[in-house]
Structure prediction request, 191 residues.
Amino acid sequence: MSNKQGKLIIFSAPSGAGKTTIVRNLLGQIPDLEFSISATTRKPRGNERDGIDYYFITKEDFLHRIAKKQFVEFEEVYSGTFYGTLRSEIERIWDKGKHVIFDIDVEGGLHLKRKYEEHALAIFVQPPSLEVLKQRLSGRGTDSPEKLEERYIKAEKELNYAPQFDIILKNHDLNTACAEAKQLVLDFLKQ
Ligand code: ADP
Ligand code: 5GP
Prediction:
């Protein structure tokens, strides 16, 4: 168990809205933040590396960890594909005296917000429209046509969750969104 408690910065959005891009940008600018590496059962894509982008584990290992209550939250984000935040990951980061930043789906984000309340800032990244979101997702070039379709269907539903977050951050122009995100996070960390 960790003795230290830092803060939690949660970025959630439908896939393709730009949260990973914004989170990476913030990590490069605010040294007090460290990325919460989630566990997942999906396969690495592109340049992703185990222990950096995700802990890539088998479904068997994931289910074993659920049974051992090692997750603060987990979701079957896409059918048959699990993602989750390990309690040990948050403690690892807090023990270093840092605050944790998350790139997580909307249900997981709201789950963490309900759990950590005022210690957490939950930000919903909003794309200009569903059409633009689809263009960004297909333009990213990382998903097969079937996976893209699954992400589009989920994205449409997830856009409705925005009002439940502390803040809605519009991601139209990327530089503007990153600058706004930086200010929001710095203000929250000062409180
Ligand atoms: P998410 O993590 O929410 O799934 P990404 O950060 O992977 O989304 O962004 C999806 C794609 O859209 C990436 O190719 C990224 O470079 C691009 N992108 C992100 N924000 C913008 C923006 N404001 N304008 C144009 N393209 C963007
Ligand atoms: P991707 O496969 O594109 O990396 O991620 C798919 C979705 O899973 C994204 O919305 C991402 O934010 C979400 N995700 C990543 N890690 C976690 C996690 O630990 N918990 C939950 N609930 N969702 C996660």
Summary: The beta strands are 8-12, 33-35, 38-40, 54-56, 71-78, 81-86, 99-104, 120-126, 167-170. Helices lie at 19-29, 59-67, 87-95, 106-116, 130-140, 145-158, 174-190. The longest helix spans residues 174-190. The chain has one domain: 8-186.
